[in-house]
Amino acid sequence: MSWVREFDFAVMTGHAFQVLLGDDEPRAALAAVRAALTDGGQFGFETRDPLARAWESWTTETPVEVAAGAAASTRMTRQVRSVDGEIVVFTSIFDAPKESAPRHGDSTLRFLGADRLGMFLAEAGPAVDERYGDWAGGPPGEGSPEIITVARRTPA
């Protein structure tokens, strides 16, 4: 199914843009989003800023506890297996009290910098309206954890 000029706003959350690993994938995704937006429609998405090097803190010594109600929580840790340029391969380990053994999930993410993101956006056509470095609206740049982008479809 394809949409043509159907949406005033589209959003991609959960750092999903980072699973677009090859150059063709973000190009195709951004072209599809542009086609789906009305003239002046916006697209919002976030990626982790590679300058913050978040993967360096993804270790078994830095668990994340996720509450699952009053009685239990799940502990998540990550182990980075490799870093090759923009590509980070890691395993997430989920340990829940009600499970007989921890669960493992392998992931690969691409950490694109603001310049590369801008290149893909310029090729696809949405023009960057706003860019933030965190969820409080702080400026992007070295040390900010995120690259939060809002881009607008300009008329053809």
Query: Helical content, roughly?
Result: 10-25%
Q: What portion of the residues fall into strands of 2 or more residues?
A: 35-45%
The count of β-strands is 8
Distance between the termini: 22 Å
Poorly predicted sequence stretches spanning 5 or more consecutive residues: none
Q: Give the ordered list of helices and strands.
A: EHEEEEEHEE
How would a textbook summarize the main sheet? Answer: 4 strands, mixed
Provide the residue-averaged pLDDT. 92
**From the alpha-carbon coordinates, what is the Rg to the nearest angstrom?**
18 Å
What form results from the Cα inertia axes? elongated
Distinct helical segment count = 2
Structural class: alpha+beta
Strand order of the largest sheet: 1-2-8-7
Can you describe this structure?
The chain has 156 residues and is α+β, with helices and mostly antiparallel strands. Strands 1-2-8-7 form a four-stranded mixed sheet. A four-stranded antiparallel sheet has the order 3-4-5-6, with no helix packed on it. It starts with 6 loop residues before the first strand and ends with a strand. It has helices at 24-36, 114-124; strands at residues 7-12, 37-48, 64-67, 73-84, 87-95, 103-110, 127-132, 146-152. Strand 4 and strand 5 form a beta hairpin.
